[in-house]
Amino acid sequence: MAAPQNLSSLNCEVRIIEAKNLEFKSKGKVFVRCYLFTGNNQKIRLNSREIPSTSHPYWNESSSLECSTANSNCMDQLKQQRVVFEIRWRNNSPMLGRIGGSKLLSRAEVSWKEVLESSELAIQRWVTTTATSSCHVLEGLKSPALHVGMKVVVPRMAEMVNNRRNDALKRWNDCGCRHGNCCHNGDDELFALVAAIEAL
Prior knowledge:
alpha+beta, Immunoglobulin-like, 2 domains, six-stranded antiparallel beta sheet, 4 helices
């Protein structure tokens, strides 16, 4: 399904499911940090919860953000952006009374263009990450991989479709005709919008 055009607002969902092929030399916590890039070279940082470091950590967490623009099409801007996923490790033993910083183990990028060009405006897949530190990941293993989901939802489109459907039904009822010729005004577009939303 083609993505709707000329939208000024939509919701973007990022889901962190699980990781695999991780082995650690010492105990600690593992988490995923996401960077969502905006059109003005800024980024939003999101962290998953920290869980004990194992070879197959499981989070199944999702975050949803509204993406909006006042000047241009939100879809066009989003197509140029990406999400960076980082698998990070933190030593959970306090150093001088405080928890130390995290270490970057591996990272991967996924473009929103892939999501917008998918039939469901959503993807879910394993992403192979590139190891950036051998400090806490044992050598000789397969590359760490991260199971992620990304989705785009157009909330205001559904509301617009319902309003237009109600207006069309009102015109039909007010007219009372059985052939529908006098009530045809724009209904083809209405049905196209309904089909687009129901396909989501």
